[in-house]
Design brief:
Layout lengths: L31 H30 L3 H4 L4 H11 L11 H12 L6 H23 L14 H8 L13 H16 L3 H12 L5 H13 L5 H30 L4 H5 L9 H6 L12 H23 L1 H12 L10 H6 L2 H11 L4 H23 L6
Keywords: Membrane, Transmembrane, Transmembrane helix
């Protein structure tokens, strides 16, 4: 559905030689499985690393492993999957817990929902990897949507909160849906892009930014102004229908079409536009300059720099990244920076391309810092400390 075999024809100035493939597929003779083995192997290393951390902590602290997997949002998704939405749980959008519930129904009796969620997320992550590796062999505009080298995979899979990619969190499902939507749009598949973007809207708040980026990307394949407008409106309309469906679902279940928004009213928020801006320099009274806050601030500004750089290369993707980052200002703090940034895979792929050009000692330093930070955050999650 998404590949080049059924994509819209390229205009004369967009056509590429038949022997040329998308950036990141080098060389074209490499098979899918040869390309897939690198990120899949890295994922296996990541899973073993995190499991080793959690088994050690389980033995040392006497905390059952299944309890470690059921911290923070995971516990909320477990409750929704087994008992349904209610009260403040409407803050969490419905698609992911519905998928957890479906996965749980397929599992043997007695499997905890957080384990079913971990299975779902890990499978979704593998499918995301397979999709991106497949797209590396497409002919067409896949810049920044596929990695040019293995560093892009490392930066994505060893992002600070990458434990969310294989536990009961929305990250992997959102990665799969957003990558599919953006890749479909980049190949001119407006219907596919719009429907997939609509599913993103049901998964995370950032889904609306995926919809906008997809609508802009699909215009790149158009041959005329009228065609560009038609493609943009098609993707936008399908995505908006998904959003209206979400509002209708919430209204039918609670009587309030904005139940999700209202359920988040008790969360931390900026009190004004100036309060949102002051977030950048710890200017709000509820912010602190502890080590964790400094790390999240630093992570935010690194991602912001990368988003601005991508804006110069491919504006729809730059806009997607910028909106996904700047929306955090509405919280008045960057307490979720690791999670918000962890799904912005174009930033990781772009950074990987740039990292490869740096001296070996610099790359080694990046590896040490990221692995250490990843281990620290993964450990904190298992112990029930804030790790988002």
């Amino acid at each position: 559905m998404l590949g080049s075999s059924d994509s819209a024809p390229l205009s004369a100035h967009q056509k590429e030689p038949a022997d040329r493939v998308a950036a990141g597929a080098a060389p074209g003779a490499r098979s899918f499985w040869a390309r897939f083995s690198i990120p899949a192997g890295l994922l296996l290393v990541l899973l073993c690393h995190h499991l080793a951390i959690w088994l050690y902590l389980s033995a040392r602290k006497g905390i059952p492993l299944v309890d470690m997997l059921n911290q923070w949002d995971s516990a909320h998704y477990s409750t929704i999957a087994t008992s349904g939405h209610g009260g403040g749980l409407w803050a969490f959008l419905p698609l992911y817990p519905a998928l957890v519930r479906s996965t749980l129904a397929l599992c043997p009796s007695g499997v905890p929902p957080q384990v079913a969620g971990a299975i779902l997320s890990t499978v979704a992550l593998l499918l995301f990897i397979a999709l991106v590796v497949w797209a590396q062999g497409w002919r067409g505009r896949t810049e920044l949507l596929v990695p040019r080298n293995h560093w892009g995979w490392f930066l994505l899979l060893y992002a600070p909160a990458s434990y969310t990619l294989h536990t009961e969190h929305t990250e992997s499902v959102f990665l799969l849906l957003s990558a599919a939507a953006l890749l479909a749009a980049a190949n001119g598949r407006a219907w596919s892009a719009g429907l997939l973007a609509a599913l993103c809207v049901w998964t995370r708040n950032q889904g609306v930014f995926v919809a906008l980026a997809s609508a802009l990307l699909v215009m790149e394949m158009a041959e005329s102004t009228a065609d560009r407008a038609k493609r943009f409106l098609l993707v936008g309309s399908l995505s908006f229908c998904g959003f209206l469906g979400l509002l209708g679902f919430q209204a039918a279940m609670t009587g309030d079409p904005l139940a999700s928004m209202h359920a988040q009213s008790g969360w931390s928020h900026a009190t004004s536009v100036w309060s949102a801006v002051r977030t950048l320099w710890f200017g709000n009274p509820w912010q602190n300059t502890g080590f964790g806050s400094l790390l999240r601030h630093g992570f935010f500004f690194v991602l912001l720099f990368l988003a601005l750089a991508i804006w110069r290369v491919r504006r729809p993707l730059g806009l997607y990244a910028l909106l996904s980052l700047l929306v955090m200002l509405l919280q008045g703090e960057f307490v979720n920076a690791f999670r918000f940034g962890g799904v912005l895979f174009p930033l990781a792929f772009f950074a990987g391309d740039r990292l490869e050009r740096l001296p070996r000692w610099t790359r080694g330093l990046v590896v040490v810092v990221l692995v250490a930070l990843n281990q620290m955050v993964t450990r904190r999650y298992a112990l029930g400390s804030w790790a988002y």
